[in-house]
Amino acid sequence: MQQTETGSRSYLISIVMVAVLGGLLFGYDTAVISGAEKGLQAFFMGAKDFTYTDGMHGFTSASALIGCIIGSAISGFLATSLGRKKSLIIAGLLFFISALGSMEPEFLFFNHGEPTYSLLIMFNIYRVIGGIGVGLASAICPMYIGEVAPSNIRGMLVSWNQFAIIFGQLVVYFVNFFILGEHTNPVIEQIGQGVNAVAPGSDPWTISTGWRYMFGSEAVPAGLFALLICFVPETPRYLVSIGQDQKALGILSKINGSSKAAVILQDIKDTMVVKTEKLLTYGVMCIFIGIMLSVFQQAVGINAVLYYAPRIFGDMGMDNPMMITVFMGVINILFTLVAIFTVEKWGRKPLLIYGSLGMAFGAFGVALTFGHAGLELVTAASLLIYSASFMFSWGPICWVLIAEIFPNTIRGAAVAIAVAFQWISNFIVSSSFVPMFNMHLTEGDDFGHWFTYGLYGILCVVAAIFVWKLVPETKGKTLEDMTRLWKKE
Fold it and tell me: 155, 151, 145, 480: which is closest to 347 by C-alpha?
């Protein structure tokens, strides 16, 4: 009886933990390339029908991002037409197909172990398929959690999705490490502009097999996610939108208790008199703020740090850049926990503003000290401050706001647009980092280093001002309150 009146916290936690597996796969899929890319590069450099250049390898390493843009763009349509649960099942299946296909791209059509241009295209197709799964999960997992969670703990539960993303990245670093074992990555030597060769003595196992196991390892969590998501309920808000009020009431009762469930159900129905509304029904500012939250999350430059951390620490002159990268990963997880346990107490806006200012401090610290002899530790500390500040602010809180800031009737489409802009911004930042970082005004100067981090620092300050002036505080508000909030604007 107590469970009927108050709801079951264990039931809520169990379905949220299944949903955050999608976040773990998000992190796993985007980071698996970091361990596999050298073996993959050496494999395709052995092709006889084409020359595998740096440009091709750059595209191949980032091809999953193309799928991410596609997946996030169609997430609104799928979430609205099929529901949140079925869309996540599709995402899980895409992860699974991509893992196996990336491991064995020769399946059915090509000779195993024979690199060709056609095989390269097939490999990229499998990576794009996985990227579509990432795009779907990145938009729908926070949406799902936001729609099942009670308003007083919604921010904390959605923040667990970001923790799962960072944890997934850390997991795959260790998985890649154990797969590599006593083997070594091949040494790539430059022999011309954008053209390379595999150095003599490079480990043949890594070139032929190692990268396959790394990509294939994702099939285990992907299969588990696709299976478990079948056993979670659809969100009450989606069920109301398709006229299944009794099913919605049953789920709300399990989560919130029977008395409160009836009140929440009526509130949902009051804001869903019309099942769908035009995207701009609540004004341009509503969509603009959602998009800019996504853009700023990437424009501050965090993925340039996460994707290229070993390169950056190596350029600083650090003896063991990979060890420092792992240390940074641990710091990232700890500061993500800070957000999880403070978001409902401090609110969304303060965390975003303080995080932006902390990132600006760290970025300017890197810009001013990078390349100066004797200041390497100051540079590294500044980079860790920058990363940690992101992890307790823009990392999780952006996803919280995107999941909750839009009114019920436009949430699917609005979230899809916002997340698509996020992946587009990610692609721009990730692809522009190395050219900017390596810019020189005169031979041997560090112009690119201070310019890049100076630019990120300025954007962090602009992000703080944007949040302060335009972003509404949503702490403690129900998703139905969002309709009333934007109607007043």
Answer: 155
